[in-house]
Design a protein that fits this description.
Helix 7 (215-242) runs antiparallel to helix 11, helix 9 packs antiparallel against helix 12 (432-456) and helix 11 (398-426) runs antiparallel to helix 12 (432-456). The protein has 16 helices and 14 strands. The chain folds into two domains: 2-201, no CATH class; 215-319 and 337-563, no CATH class. Helix content is 38%, strand content 8%. It has 569 residues and is an alpha+beta fold. The strands form six sheets. The protein has a four-stranded antiparallel β-sheet, with no helix packed on it. Strands 1-2 form a two-stranded antiparallel sheet.
């Protein structure tokens, strides 16, 4: 008994059909066939889907002009741009070779060339008029006609083939079923994502990536988008108060400040006194704050757009924006996701990047650079106009400078977390395009951290109540006054200009020290670890209740899903 099913991609009006022999010994999974039938039935009406299919299927018809005829039995179908079609035929032919049902498939070029994919076999089928008979199924790649087709392909793919990074045309049944379209292992989830795909993002997305985007990739991207929304929220608060303004000399350059959130301009530099205190750390602090804010907004926006382009839901945590903002004049009195008034700032990142014999991924522990910041709760933004004001003589009050210096160390704390988070999660993704995305955004987080690491070291040695910013260039451990820490000179761990990552142990101490981002393990730098660090930082404390808002439960759930992802081979 014969049955036919669509295996691959077709135009909306016509389909390429394979007649396969159904037997107890040689049968293809009906579930798989039905899945591909659904894909084939929809791809023609959703051309944007092709840009997200594996390389074997991904070539837009508009890129090629050659016309081919495909003959299945006595039916002939006119097909344009066979470049991606022939890749499918090669994979399909390999399946048939493995499973033994012999398809009767003839491909005829408009100029008269004919290519046979197999005739005879158990069904005894024959090709139509002008068919080339072959005794067994062979890879499409072996045909001279296909070689001519290959000559018309773009130079990028040729480069991939020469370098060995291209996909082999001949694939066994296991690899095809694993990698075809979305992969049978995630067929149910994949079909749902495709059905929701937004045509607006269809064209041009994706590299020639064989591995499809997986449910795990989506989980990681969703978590990252959520965390970037949190970061955007806190950076907007810093920019509103300490960003560029013409009210402070040297705080505004010739380049226009065009910070926007959802199309609405963000007013910056509303607390000139606070901005002046920030400039003690570096004269360019206002511009750096605006740029970092812009970056985090773009990260959240892009990740959400990318999720939508793949048919997944974007993330929006706005329902948890219930925390009160600063009361400084001009600050929009809208709810915020984060609280920058009750921070407990971990500064062990300072010594972690200076240690030459400890790595958090290998159990290393580290001293705080500003011990008092890691105790109690400290404001990083002024709450009122009075708190943001300079002294009558124009000098900076110690309290205001302490607020600005707390912010300086908090900037670096936030960005060092992103520097570790992205490489930690990058090890879990399957899609090369998603990997590229994480490495690209993660690189910008490292640039942010490097900048703030340098500026934090300029915090002056002052005391404000129970908070002291120590002299880190004194050659002593600010935690206990010792001149060495576990045999290492204190200067090597605290000196302010040592901002480049010190080579340290990695993977195996026997390999010797190497300069690296650390940590990069899930346990120390992954999604859950990042959420825990934000909670410990006090970012989500509601001052009215002194308890965390409901955002923590949502972030933790997303983080657990992201950390649980395993890369598919």
């Amino acid at each position: 008994m014969k049955f036919g099913f669509c295996l691959g991609i077709r135009k909306p009006d016509k389909a390429l059909r394979f007649n396969t022999l159904r037997s107890s010994r040689h049968r293809l999974s009906l579930a798989v066939s039905r899945f591909f039938v659904n894909v084939a039935a929809n791809v023609g009406r959703m051309p944007h889907v092709t840009s997200r299919l594996p390389l074997s299927f991904r070539r837009n018809a508009a890129q090629f002009s050659k016309i081919f005829y495909i003959r299945c039995g006595n039916k002939k179908t006119k097909v344009q741009s066979l470049s991606w079609q022939r890749r499918f035929f090669g994979a399909a032919a390999s399946i048939c070779e493995q499973t033994r049902p012999q398809p009767n498939l003839i491909c005829r070029h408009a100029r008269g060339h004919t290519l046979g994919f197999g005739v005879g076999g158990p069904s005894g089928g024959r090709g139509g008029s002008g068919c080339v008979r072959k005794g067994s199924v062979k890879s499409v790649r072996e045909s001279s006609v296909v070689k001519k087709i290959e000559n018309s392909e773009n130079s990028r793919e040729k480069t991939m083939k020469k370098s060995g990074s291209g996909i082999k045309q001949r694939a066994n049944r296991r690899s095809f079923l694993k990698n075809g379209v979305l992969g049978v292992g995630v067929a149910a989830a994949g079909a749902g994502l495709l059905a929701k795909a937004s045509p607006a993002f269809g064209q041009g997305l994706g590299d020639n990536d064989r591995a499809p985007i997986t449910k795990g990739d989506i989980a990681i991207l969703t978590f990252l988008s959520a965390l970037e929304q949190v970061e955007a929220d806190l950076w907007i608060q810093y920019a509103e108060l300490g960003g560029p303004t013409s009210a402070v000399p040297g705080a505004l350059g010739l380049s226009a400040i065009d910070l926007q959130l959802n199309g609405k301009a963000i007013n910056t530099g509303l607390a000139p006194g606070y901005l002046t205190a920030l400039q003690v750390l570096d004269g360019d602090m206002p511009q750096y704050i605006a740029d970092n804010t812009d970056d985090e907004i773009s990260h959240h926006r892009f990740l959400n757009n990318y999720l939508q382009s793949k048919g997944a839901k974007p993330i929006d945590l706005s329902q948890f924006a219930i925390l009160p903002p600063s009361q400084v004049t001009g600050v929009p009195q809208t709810g915020r996701l984060t609280n920058l008034r009750q921070l407990t700032v971990d500064t062990t990142w300072w010594t972690r990047y200076r240690s030459d014999n400890h790595n958090p991924d290998l159990g290393g522990t580290f001293e705080n650079a500003v011990p008092d910041l890691a105790k109690g709760q400290h404001p990083a933004i002024p709450q009122t106009d009075a708190e943001a004001a300079l002294n009558a003589d124009g000098s900076i009050p110690n309290h205001l400078q302490a607020i600005a210096s707390t912010a300086g160390f908090h900037f670096a704390f936030i960005e060092q977390g992103g520097s570790s988070l992205y490489p930690a999660l990058a090890q879990k993704v399957t899609s090369l395009e998603v990997l590229r995305l994480l490495l690209s955004i993660g690189g910008s987080e490292i640039m942010h951290f490097q900048t703030w690491h340098d500026k934090a070291g300029n915090a002056p040695n002052i005391t404000d109540g129970n908070l002291t910013f120590p002299n880190l260039n004194g050659g002593v451990d600010p935690n206990n006054g010792a001149t060495t820490v576990d045999g290492t000179p204190a200067a090597d761990l605290f000196q302010t200009n040592l901002i480049m990552p010190e080579p340290t142990v990695f993977l195996n101490p026997e390999l010797g020290p190497v300069a690296i981002i650390r940590p990069t393990s899930s346990a120390q730098g992954g999604a859950v670890a990042s959420v825990v660090s934000f909670v410990d930082d006090g970012l989500f404390l509601d001052p009215a209740t002194n308890k965390n808002t409901g955002i923590v439960n949502v972030l933790m759930r997303l983080a657990e899903e992201a950390d649980a992802v395993l890369r598919r081979l």
